[in-house]
Design brief:
The protein has about 220 residues and is an all-alpha fold. Helices cover about 70% and strands about 0% of the residues. About 10% of the residues are buried.
Length: about 220
């Protein structure tokens, strides 16, 4: 990553790819497009007889599309050859949405979010395993089941989850304190909250004074 200047996830994706074909297939099939949310409308308008790409581009921009004219033109080219637009295939969910569905309390998800998460887990065993580990840790955290921590760490380390491997190493680095936090009913949350409040007040009080002192010192030196 240091040598290439690329992001960590990009380097990791290239490192894991068994071949160039596999890498290109993942990039092509897995990356969301700006057009994804607008495909149903685009298919519908095409089948209604609107085949002018400039008009379609203008309509989609009014609906919030921020992509290029060329993207739409390339996308509808098969429609011209086939004579009609097929049913729109929903685009893949955004990574941040999937992360939100996994990390949130399942009871706070609406029906559409629950269905989308189920579909994503069914299509990707790796994601399904990740969600299972996250749910397992959430139960340990909310139920104060610190006795299950070692088994959870062992299960994570035995799985192909590099992101969770890093998290597990952090837990093991300070495991006695983590175990106490996941077992005992006491918490330093109140103390940490007061410390944060004091720091905020300090920044509010000393920020303007520090600026005034600096300005006064500059004035003295100049005169």
């Amino acid at each position: 990553m240091r040598e290439t200047g690329l992001a960590k996830e990009t380097v990791r994706r290239f490192y894991r790819a068994a071949s160039a074909e596999e890498l290109l297939a993942k990039i092509k099939d897995g990356r969301p497009s700006l057009l994804d949310d607008h495909k149903p409308h685009l298919h519908q308008r095409w089948n209604e007889g609107c085949t002018n790409v400039r008009q379609l581009h203008a309509e989609l921009r009014d609906r919030g599309y921020r992509g290029s004219y060329g993207t739409i033109s390339n996308y509808v080219q098969p429609f011209r050859e086939a004579g009609a637009a097929p049913p729109a295939v929903p685009g893949p969910p955004k990574a941040r949405d999937v992360a939100s569905w996994i990390l949130r309390d399942p009871d706070t998800l609406d029906d559409d979010e629950k269905a989308s998460l189920v579909q994503a887990r069914e299509r990707c065993p790796h994601l399904d395993a990740l969600a299972g580990h996250v749910t397992g840790f959430a139960k340990i955290l909310t139920g104060l089941h610190g006795g299950r921590l070692d088994d959870w760490i062992a299960a994570v380390e035995a799985d192909d989850q590099p992101g969770l491997h890093s998290f597990a190493r952090g837990l093991k680095h300070d495991q006695p304190a983590v175990l106490n936090g996941l077992t005992l009913p006491w918490s330093s949350g109140i103390v940490e909250g007061n410390v944060n409040r004091l720091k905020m007040l300090k920044r509010q009080m000393y920020g303007p004074r520090a600026s005034a002192c600096s300005a006064s010192a500059s004035f003295v030196l100049e005169t």
